[in-house]
């Protein structure tokens, strides 16, 4: 168990180091970064002043060392547009994205796991057909198209929910559903396939021969083993969701990190883009690490092999 966790922790550190290097060269690989950050009509004097202010005239290794040192303490400089420290702005947007990603994941889990369990135990029934249909629909429907469709029917036509903003609990229903719809499709298919594989195992037949209730078999024997592959998918999917969906947050005017990414790209605010990229990568790596830890507690074979 300890060796397993230490190896995953070492992998996470190496991945974060690689991410920092990639983010550093992100604005330099296309040439002079000053040309990307300042307006085209800017004078040569302004370009030179901006280059000195950003430190682009120093040796590349010195710039890399300063960037790494600043990244360790969360200092990525000031936003070119807002004139404020970049990382606090990103952290300020985290609760909104966390709220949206959590709502989407909860909706996906509540619908997907029961449908997948029932469909896997009773293939060919109408519930199984419904689950397979939703799984296919969830994985093939573009999120931006679904978002516009939800706004048209439930916000504009019926007036049940607001079409944008983060004002009340009703504001999260539509973007949360759109955020979780794709993940729901993947979870339904994964749960169904895992259940169909597990229901043929010897210990399931033994539990049935003992006369255990189907509810007990579902919860104690099937669900626990189905959780092993599901934990990995849910953890990684939630980590990527925290990065923010640009389309969903932009369409619904949701004040999260996804909307901030769209704004930073439009403003060519590269210090802010770097802060967002590094913060999102850290969140994804941490979620993957927590997923590995949860996987080790769920699956006793990992503890045994250690």
TrEMBL record:
Bilayer topology term: Multi-pass membrane protein
InterPro entries: BPD_transp_1_N, MetI-like, MetI-like_sf
Locations listed in the record: Cell membrane
The entry's keywords: Cell membrane, Membrane, Transmembrane, Transmembrane helix, Transport
Location (main, coarse): membrane
Chain segments annotated as transmembrane: 12-31, 100-121, 133-156, 168-190, 226-252, 272-298
An example Gene Ontology CC term for this record: plasma membrane
A Gene Ontology biological process term: transmembrane transport
Sequence ranges assigned to domain ABC transmembrane type-1 in this UniProt record: 94-291
Membership in a protein family: Belongs to the binding-protein-dependent transport system permease family.
PANTHER family registered for this protein in UniProt: DIPEPTIDE TRANSPORT SYSTEM PERMEASE PROTEIN DPPB-RELATED
Protein name (record): ABC transporter permease
Organism: Candidatus Desulfolinea nitratireducens
């Amino acid at each position: 168990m300890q060796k397993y966790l230490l190896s995953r922790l070492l992998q996470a550190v190496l991945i974060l180091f690689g991410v920092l290097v990639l983010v550093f060269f992100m604005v330099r690989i296309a040439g002079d970064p000053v040309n990307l950050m300042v307006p085209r009509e800017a004078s040569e004097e302004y370009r030179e002043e901006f280059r000195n202010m950003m430190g682009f005239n120093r040796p590349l290794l010195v710039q890399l060392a300063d960037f790494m040192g600043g990244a360790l303490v969360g200092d990525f400089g000031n936003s070119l547009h807002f004139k404020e420290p970049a990382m606090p702005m990103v952290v300020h947007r985290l609760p909104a994205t966390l709220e949206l990603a959590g709502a989407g994941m909860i909706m996906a889990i509540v619908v997907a796991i029961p449908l997948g369990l029932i469909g896997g135990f009773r293939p060919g029934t109408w519930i199984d057909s419904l689950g397979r249909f939703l799984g296919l629909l969830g994985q093939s429907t573009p999120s931006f198209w679904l978002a516009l469709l939800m706004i048209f029917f439930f916000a504009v036509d019926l007036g049940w929910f607001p079409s944008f903003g983060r004002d009340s609990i009703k504001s999260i229903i539509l973007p949360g559903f759109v955020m979780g719809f794709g993940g729901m499709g993947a979870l339904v298919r994964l749960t169904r396939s895992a259940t169909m594989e597990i229901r043929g195992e010897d210990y399931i037949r033994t539990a049935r021969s003992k006369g255990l209730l189907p509810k007990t078999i579902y919860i104690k024997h099937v669900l626990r083993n189905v959780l092993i592959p599901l934990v990995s998918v849910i953890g990684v999917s939630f980590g990527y969701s925290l990065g923010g969906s640009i389309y969903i947050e932009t369409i619904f005017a949701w004040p999260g990190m996804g909307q901030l990414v769209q704004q930073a790209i439009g403003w060519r605010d590269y210090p802010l883009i770097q802060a967002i990229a590094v913060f999102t990568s850290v969140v994804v790596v941490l979620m993957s690490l927590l997923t590995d830890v949860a996987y080790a507690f769920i699956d006793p074979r990992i503890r045994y092999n250690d």
